[in-house]
Amino acid sequence: MPQEKTGETRPFSSSKLSVLRKHPYFCDLDPEAFDQLCRYAKHSTLKRGTTIVSKGDPGNSLIAVISGTVKISVSSVDGRSAILNLIGQGEIFGEMSVLDGQPRSADAIANTNCEIFTIDRREFLPFVRSQPALAMKFIELLCARLRWTSDQVEQVILQNLPGRLASALIRLTEKHKQEPKGRTIAVTQQEISEMVGMTRESINKQLRAWAAREWVRLEHGAIVVLNVEMLRELVEAGGEDS
Ligand code: CMP
């Protein structure tokens, strides 16, 4: 059975736990249950580019991102790849195969240097069974995944390039709106092109047109959304510019 490709595993400091503690899924656990969960968690540091899980692997563990970003993607035999999601600090992935026992549904690759916690399936499943409120939170997580994916499918089928791109930027800013740098999305234009299924050149052309209108600002490795309302209007108009 292939091992999951987490990096070096070491003991962790309690400050790392606060990221897990603040997570909406874990913040309501009583202190004893949270301590128990922490005893199961293994801390690893990973270099950018490390494959954490591969599509088709057995799902042996649940993974929480403590710092950095993880790319969830799938690729074709001819080397093209599609990014399904970017998982940031305080988010969780790998829950699908942990819960249903099926193989991993996608690849997860460290998009930056990352710190993660992994929790073994054999420990997580009995734990979640003993915590019905936590089980409900995981149902919410799966609903959120489905909504995210439905939205992506809707955009790909129904929208043109401006609509798809605007919709992807809105989805990404929604995820980060609680954070201080709220509307700054740490994503490259290549990554955006793999998310919306358009060439990097056409993405760049569209982004520059929106930068000229001050809807976005382009930074090295990031996009700052300045006018989310105009992007929303564009999506509602089916991607057609007024
Ligand atoms: P799992 O199938 O165990 O391993 C890959 C993980 O990627 C999966 O669990 C989810 O956590 C995540 N994932 C898979 N598909 C999507 C998607 N469409 N959107 C967001 N996350 C996904």
From TrEMBL:
- Pfam (any one): cNMP_binding
Q: Which residues form the HTH crp-type domain?
A: 159-229
Which InterPro entries has this protein been placed in? cNMP-bd_CS, cNMP-bd_dom, cNMP-bd_dom_sf, Env_Response_Regulators, HTH_CRP, RmlC-like_jellyroll, WH-like_DNA-bd_sf, WH_DNA-bd_sf
The superkingdom listed in its UniProt entry is Bacteria
Gene Ontology cellular component terms for the protein in this record: cytosol
CDD domains linked to this entry: CAP_ED
Going by the UniProt record, its keywords in alphabetical order are: DNA-binding, Kinase, Transcription, Transcription regulation, Transferase
Q: What is this protein called?
A: cAMP-binding domain of CRP or a regulatory subunit of cAMP-dependent protein kinases
User: Record's SUPFAM superfamilies?
Assistant: cAMP-binding domain-like, Winged helix' DNA-binding domain
Q: Which GO terms describe its molecular function?
A: DNA binding; DNA-binding transcription factor activity; kinase activity
List, for all copies, the residue spans of the domain called Cyclic nucleotide-binding: 25-145
* Protein species of origin: Bradyrhizobium erythrophlei
